[in-house]
Amino acid sequence: MKKVYNSAAEALEGVLSDGMLIASGGFGLCGIPELLLQAIKENGAKDLTFASNNAGVDDFGIGILLHTRQVKKMISSYVGENAEFMRQYLSGELELEFNPQGTLAERMRAGGCGIPGFYTKTGVGTQIAEGKEVKQFNGEDYILETGLFADLSIVKAWKADDTGNLIFRKTARNFNPPAAMCGKVCIAEVEEIVPRGALDPDHIHLPGIYVHRIIQGEHEKRIEQRTTRKREEA
Amino acid sequence: MAWDRNQMAARAAQELEDGMYVNLGIGIPTLVANYVGDKDITLQSENGMLGMGPFPFEGDEDPDLINAGKQTITELNRTAYFDSAMSFGMIRGGKIAAAILGAMEVAENGDLANWMIPGKLVKGMGGAMDLVAGVGRVIVVMDHQNKAGESKVLKKCTLPLTGTGVVDRIVTNLGVLDVVEGGLRIVECADGVSEDELRAATDATIV
Q: What ipTM did this prediction achieve?
C-alpha cells in the first residue's frame, strides 16, 4: 500500500481525465486543496465539473481553472467574490447548478456512504424543488435529493499518516471530509505527513480507507476577509 | 423616529434565551452578538463551528479559523469544530434553537425571500435555505421598507423564495411583528413610531 506521492502532479497521474466530476473540499479559500488545483491547471484537463461549495476568487482556488477554461460546470451553494466566474456564467460559457449548502454537504456524505437519495425539507416550495419528487412524512413535505458520486475527490488536511488517516485543523475541516468520502479516488494534500503510529487513533477525523493518495506541501492559505479588533479594546 | 441598526440588533437580542444555540446571518444579525449581555448563548457558524468568538487581535489572524462570512474569528473555551455535513445535520435536525437572518421580503404567511433578484447578479443561497427549513425559530431583522419606500413586509413575496411559511418573528426599524393565523400581529412599535404609522408602512395584512 503506497499512498504517499512526491508531488501533486504525480498524485494526479492516471486518475485525472477530461470530463470528470471532481468533488473539492474547502469553504471560501479556507481549507482548499490549493496545490492540487494548481496541478490540475498545469495538467490541462478540461470539461471538468466541480462539486465545491464555492468557486474561489479570480486568482486563487478554483478561480485559476476558470481563467484557463478547464471548468464546464460548477455545483455550488455560493459563487460571489469572483468576477471571471460571473462573466463566464452570464455569457453562457459556464454551467451552474445551485445546491443549498447543507444539501450539497449531505449529497457528498450520502454518496460516500452508498446512499443514492435522501429526503430533505430544505428548499421545499422554492426553485430548488422544481422537478424533484415530493413526499410527505408525518404530514410534512420533503424533497428527494440524490447522493453525489464523484470520479475524483481532492481535499486539504492538516496532517496525515502514511496510511492516509487525516486530521484537519479548526474550520479548515468544512467540506473536506464529505468531499473525500464521495470520490472513487481521493487525493489529500497535507501540511505534514507523519509515520504510522504518530497520530493518536482516537484523534483521526477521517480514516485512511477514504484516502488513496497523499502529498505534503507548502500552503499559501490566503485569507479572504481579514477582520481584527484592536488590542486596546480588550 | 425609528430604530437604527444597533437598536434593531439590540431588540432582536431580546429574543435569545439563556442556553440557546443560535445562528446569526450576515449584516445586522451579526451585530446581535454585541447585545446578548450575560446570557449564555452559543453561536454556530455553519462552516463547522459551535462557540464562535470575537475577531482576533491584529497579528493573531488564523487562515484556518473563519466564520461563514469568511471573516477571521477566534475560538472560545467551549468551541467545537466539525465538518459541513455534521454542521447542516444539526441545522436540519432542529438542534439550533434560532436563526436571526436578514431578508429582502417577508410575507404575511411566513414566506421568506433573501437569496436572489431575477435579472441581477445571483451569488447563491449558501446555507440560508437549510437554516430556515431546519432551525427552531426564524427571526428576520431588516428595514421595513426598501430604498424606494415600498414595504418589504408583503401580502405575498414577489422574489424567488428561500423558504415557505418559515418566519416566526420580524424585527424592523419600525417595530416587531409576529406571523400568526391570517396575517401579522403587531408585538411592539419602535421608539417614536405609532401603530398607525407601522400599519401604513406595511403591505401585509395586520390582524
A: 0.96
